[in-house]
Design brief:
This protein has 74 residues and is an alpha+beta fold. It has one domain. Helix content is 36%, strand content 15%. The chain has a two-stranded antiparallel sheet. The longest helix has 12 residues. The chain is globular.
Length: 74
């Protein structure tokens, strides 16, 4: 994620949630369909609407960039 930050600086914010905070976020994990893996990628619009949720680590740069495009699309 950090390698993408300069490319999208000022247009998107990347936030990595710690393992400890993830453990304490069971309601959100279930709401974003990240269970049973208990973690993953969620992309939100500027208004906080989730537009992409990918459970576990089944994503790479291509999926991250796809999520970014959905977030910044007009």
């Amino acid at each position: 994620m950090s390698e993408l930050t300069p490319e999208y600086e000022g247009r998107i914010t990347f936030t990595i949630v710690s393992a400890e905070d993830t453990k304490n976020a069971r309601d959100e994990i279930e709401a974003y369909l990240l269970a049973p893996r208990g973690h993953g990628l969620v992309a939100f619009t500027a208004t906080g609407e989730p537009v992409v949720a990918i459970a576990g680590h089944q994503f790479g740069r291509e999926e991250i960039e796809m999520a970014i495009q959905q977030v910044i699309a007009p």
